[in-house]
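Title: Comparing notes on inverse folding

I've been comparing how different people in this forum approach sequence design from structure. To keep things fair, I'm posting one structure and asking everyone to reply with a full sequence. Here's the target:
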């Protein structure tokens, strides 16, 4: 199925985010985890921590930039998806939520953004 221009740009953003995280020593566990309740762009391992990563890309920082586009509703969907993902573990690992915010050509990494 043909992807839209917006989907292709989103994929490029996720590719850049993944490369950035891999270059900082994180290990990819899963990409684009989907469940009925939501989606996780990237699931990574950082040492003993499982990291759920939301990738946001915007042309510029106008209107708050990429990180500001993560609404409370999106945060709820991320938490639901993380809970579903964690069902595969007998013992829960330490977890955190990170954001990769891409504004233009600038990549920002916000760690542990939600409780």
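Reply #1:
Here's my take.
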């Amino acid at each position: 199925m043909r992807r839209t221009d917006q989907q292709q740009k989103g994929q490029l953003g996720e590719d850049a985010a993944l490369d950035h995280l891999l270059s900082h020593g994180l290990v990819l566990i899963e990409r684009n985890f989907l469940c009925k309740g939501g989606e996780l762009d990237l699931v990574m391992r950082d040492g003993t921590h499982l990291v759920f990563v939301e990738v946001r890309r915007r042309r510029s920082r106008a209107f708050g930039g990429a990180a500001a586009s993560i609404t409370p509703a999106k945060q709820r969907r991320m938490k639901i998806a993380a809970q579903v993902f964690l069902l595969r573990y007998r013992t829960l690992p330490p977890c955190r939520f990170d954001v990769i915010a891409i504004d233009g050509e600038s990549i920002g990494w916000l760690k542990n953004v939600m409780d």
